[in-house]
Amino acid sequence: MNSKEKIVILGGGQSAVYAAKEIRNYDNKVEITIISEENVLAYERPPLSKEYITNKKKLDDFIFFNSEFYSKNNINYLKNTKIINIDFQNKILFSQNNNQFLYDKLLVATGSLNRKIDPNIKNNYNKFLSLRNNEDSDNIKNKLKESKKVLIIGGGFIGLEIASSANELDKEVYVVEMNDQLMGRSIPKKISNLCKKIHEENGNKIYLNTTIKKINFYNNSYEIKLSNEEIIFVDLVILGIGSIANTELFKNKDIKIDNGIITNEYCETSQKDVYAAGDVSNFFHPFYNKYIRLESYQHAQNHGICAAKNILGIKEAYNSIPWMWSDQLNINIQLTGLCDDFDEILQRGENIEEGVIDFFIKDKEIKGACGIGVKGKIGRDIKLASKILEKKLKINVSNILDKNFNLSKMLKKV
Ligand SMILES: Cc1cc2nc3c(=O)[nH]c(=O)nc-3n(C[C@H](O)[C@H](O)[C@H](O)COP(=O)(O)OP(=O)(O)OC[C@H]3O[C@@H](n4cnc5c(N)ncnc54)[C@H](O)[C@@H]3O)c2cc1C
Question: What is the count of structural domains for the chain?
Answer without folding.
Answer: 3
